[in-house]
Amino acid sequence: MTSKKIKNKKSEIKNINNIKKINKSAYDAESITVLEGLEPVRKRPGMYIGSTSGTGLHHLIWEVVDNGIDEAMAGYATEIKVNLLASGLVEISDNGRGIPVGKHKATGVSALETVLTKLHAGGKFGEGGGYKVSGGLHGVGVSVVNALSEYLKAEVHREGRIWMQEYKRGIPQKKIKPIGTSKKTGTIITFKPDATIFTETEFSWGKILDHLRQQAYLNKGITILISDQRQGHRPKKFRFHFEGGIKSYVKTLNHNKTVKNETIFYIEKDINNSNIEVALQYNDEYNEMVLPFANNIYNAEGGTHLAGFRTALTRTLNSYARAQNILKEKEENLTGEDVREGLTSIISVKLTDPQFEGQTKGKLGNAEIKTYVEQVFNESFSNFLQEHPKGAEAIIGKCILSAQARMAARTARATILRKGALEGMTLPGKLADCSSRKPEECELYIVEGDSAGGSAKQARNRKFQAILPLRGKILNVERARLDKMLANNEIKNLVIALGTNIDDQLNLSKLRYHRVIIMTDADVDGSHIRTLLLTLFFRHFTSLIENGHLYIAQPPLYQIKKGTVAKYAYSDAEKKKIIKEFGGQSSEIEIEPEEENNEDEEDKKDLKKSIKINIQRYKGLGEMNPEQLWETTMNPEQRIMKQITIDEAARADETFDMLMGGDVLPRKHFIQTHAKTVTNLDI
Ligand code: 0RA
């Protein structure tokens, strides 16, 4: 396996010039490259793990797990376990070779102690022996984990014995010592993140599960076991093992979808010290779901691997379609867009020297990788099409349909925009317009459903607030063509109400309301509709957002009542605070969402009895009466709204591209991007 030869280059390391190579070839106590101590890590943790918030905290786990994955990918380990212990510690073990324990000449202490107390120490960085493929952006070695842990214990099973050493904030408490015998090999790292460094110290089960599941997909054959034994958490256990690797990943992503090619395309190939892996399958939907990875790191911004893949995909499908005469001589070639509709694919490359670029360092930059992916994929996918003529035909048929729709849409679009079909049309009947005709003071509330629309109509100030209820799930505008989109009544109503026309015909001076406010329920459906609307605005009303006209209303999540006094909470933290103010014990009713069950309801009842605090969770806007809705969400004096901004329309658009897929990963990225583009604003 070439991955042995692959290591993850740490850009910081390159620039440090006091590297002293001791032994390049062999992995033993001697082959460790010695650098400096851990003080810099504690001084500037962000430099090493990105942040000291939740993301940085989880990086500690990823870092240790990555080492286990490296052992597995090098053929020495098969299993990695991550246990969140009852004691609050995290225990991560692997059955690899175990960190070497012999005396390390340059430092005079054991190799284990060197690995754990010296920055960037570890044979893995040596040219000949290095193979590290995994590692997050900040994959900098277990010593960083040690530096940022108030306590860490390393146990190594090696050479017939169990070796142990403990550390506090990176400082060894005693010398390494044997504490027993063992026939196995492996490493067990147990640690507690330093609460004086991290602003968040609670690990998220969901995050751990998502990340490790993905790592298991990306490294076929390894087994990852995870358990939650923490106090106050429901005991949970998971095992991830995917013989099919990214092929299984594609299968999961297309689960519940009608697929075009039954057989999933899959290729894995080594080329010039790099490893290329691609899996793909078409479904009958319209969006593309492509997940590119380099050295097990997700590349939200794509890069050279994705570019190579896309070029080869378009070329291969066109040549096959021509060769089979499915695409006739006088017909135009399929475009990149045509061949991406309904495509689910994963591109995973492993390389020695990854260069990450872009705003979030989420883009692979190595130029040679484009050629490698193109070459490997081109050949193997051509063969696949030859060998699976039925699947090939279904795929190409779908692409041709996309091409036809694209051409029809181009014509329809030209007609619509030329005719100015949307200008001067009568306002939709569903719109409860406001009386003012001064756009500067006017607001349009886009409300989900007729019932919430009814409440909003009663709640509003009719002078300057207009209400437009939208029924049901509006069209998925992500891929919809302009003609189809405008055939959808809900969207047409919205476009007419705004008064601006759309796309390149958009004229902001005609905007009838300077505040356009999306008001949806705080549930899954509500957030879906909000997402759809945001997509619509991002794609077709970009300058409306750029000029700060788009907002999201923030209805409260809870009403907390004590006697006749009612307060509203817009977050769980605020709920806690209010309960405390009311003299209640907030911890008593803290419920983990996944553990919300009857027991908790009982707890709540108990609480109500003892301190007479009544907590109502608002699931929908309809649960509020008009007065409450006005008071909490619509009254400009009191309401909280979020203004939507776009720093970079292009990037938002890219994000939305991936968003509509059913996968959690792009969705998660959306939420992060979204959090950045949404700024809190009290109006
Ligand atoms: C340095 C050298 C060798 C293995 C490791 C580090 C190693 C580190 C970790 C961290 C967690 N699990 C790990 N497993 C191994 C090579 C050892 C040899 O040559 O026997």
TrEMBL record:
<dbReference type="InterPro" id="IPR018522">
    <property type="entry name" value="TopoIIA_CS"/>
</dbReference>
<dbReference type="Pfam" id="PF00986">
    <property type="entry name" value="DNA_gyraseB_C"/>
</dbReference>
<dbReference type="InterPro" id="IPR011557">
    <property type="entry name" value="GyrB"/>
</dbReference>
<dbReference type="GO" id="GO:0003918">
    <property type="term" value="F:DNA topoisomerase type II (double strand cut, ATP-hydrolyzing) activity"/>
</dbReference>
<dbReference type="InterPro" id="IPR003594">
    <property type="entry name" value="HATPase_dom"/>
</dbReference>
<keyword id="KW-0799">Topoisomerase</keyword>
<dbReference type="InterPro" id="IPR013760">
    <property type="entry name" value="Topo_IIA-like_dom_sf"/>
</dbReference>
<dbReference type="GO" id="GO:0046872">
    <property type="term" value="F:metal ion binding"/>
</dbReference>
<comment type="similarity">
    <text>Belongs to the type II topoisomerase GyrB family.</text>
</comment>
<feature type="binding site">
    <location>
        <position position="521"/>
    </location>
    <ligand>
        <name>Mg(2+) 1</name>
    </ligand>
</feature>
<dbReference type="GO" id="GO:0005737">
    <property type="term" value="C:cytoplasm"/>
</dbReference>
<dbReference type="Pfam" id="PF02518">
    <property type="entry name" value="HATPase_c"/>
</dbReference>
<keyword id="KW-0963">Cytoplasm</keyword>
<dbReference type="InterPro" id="IPR036890">
    <property type="entry name" value="HATPase_C_sf"/>
</dbReference>
<dbReference type="InterPro" id="IPR006171">
    <property type="entry name" value="TOPRIM_dom"/>
</dbReference>
<feature type="domain" description="Toprim">
    <location>
        <begin position="442"/>
        <end position="556"/>
    </location>
</feature>
<keyword id="KW-0238">DNA-binding</keyword>
<dbReference type="GO" id="GO:0006265">
    <property type="term" value="P:DNA topological change"/>
</dbReference>
<feature type="site" description="Interaction with DNA">
    <location>
        <position position="476"/>
    </location>
</feature>
<dbReference type="InterPro" id="IPR013759">
    <property type="entry name" value="Topo_IIA_B_C"/>
</dbReference>
<keyword id="KW-0547">Nucleotide-binding</keyword>
<dbReference type="GO" id="GO:0005524">
    <property type="term" value="F:ATP binding"/>
</dbReference>
<dbReference type="InterPro" id="IPR001241">
    <property type="entry name" value="Topo_IIA"/>
</dbReference>
<comment type="function">
    <text>A type II topoisomerase that negatively supercoils closed circular double-stranded (ds) DNA in an ATP-dependent manner to modulate DNA topology and maintain chromosomes in an underwound state. Negative supercoiling favors strand separation, and DNA replication, transcription, recombination and repair, all of which involve strand separation. Also able to catalyze the interconversion of other topological isomers of dsDNA rings, including catenanes and knotted rings. Type II topoisomerases break and join 2 DNA strands simultaneously in an ATP-dependent manner.</text>
</comment>
<dbReference type="GO" id="GO:0006261">
    <property type="term" value="P:DNA-templated DNA replication"/>
</dbReference>
<dbReference type="InterPro" id="IPR034160">
    <property type="entry name" value="TOPRIM_GyrB"/>
</dbReference>
<feature type="binding site">
    <location>
        <position position="521"/>
    </location>
    <ligand>
        <name>Mg(2+) 2</name>
    </ligand>
</feature>
<dbReference type="InterPro" id="IPR020568">
    <property type="entry name" value="Ribosomal_Su5_D2-typ_SF"/>
</dbReference>
<feature type="binding site">
    <location>
        <position position="523"/>
    </location>
    <ligand>
        <name>Mg(2+) 2</name>
    </ligand>
</feature>
<feature type="site" description="Interaction with DNA">
    <location>
        <position position="473"/>
    </location>
</feature>
<dbReference type="InterPro" id="IPR000565">
    <property type="entry name" value="Topo_IIA_B"/>
</dbReference>
<keyword id="KW-0067">ATP-binding</keyword>
<feature type="binding site">
    <location>
        <position position="448"/>
    </location>
    <ligand>
        <name>Mg(2+) 1</name>
    </ligand>
</feature>
<dbReference type="GO" id="GO:0005694">
    <property type="term" value="C:chromosome"/>
</dbReference>
<protein>
    <recommendedName>
        <fullName>DNA gyrase subunit B</fullName>
        <ecNumber>5.6.2.2</ecNumber>
    </recommendedName>
</protein>
<dbReference type="InterPro" id="IPR002288">
    <property type="entry name" value="DNA_gyrase_B_C"/>
</dbReference>
<dbReference type="GO" id="GO:0003677">
    <property type="term" value="F:DNA binding"/>
</dbReference>
<dbReference type="Pfam" id="PF00204">
    <property type="entry name" value="DNA_gyraseB"/>
</dbReference>
<dbReference type="InterPro" id="IPR013506">
    <property type="entry name" value="Topo_IIA_bsu_dom2"/>
</dbReference>
<dbReference type="Pfam" id="PF01751">
    <property type="entry name" value="Toprim"/>
</dbReference>
<keyword id="KW-0479">Metal-binding</keyword>
<keyword id="KW-0460">Magnesium</keyword>
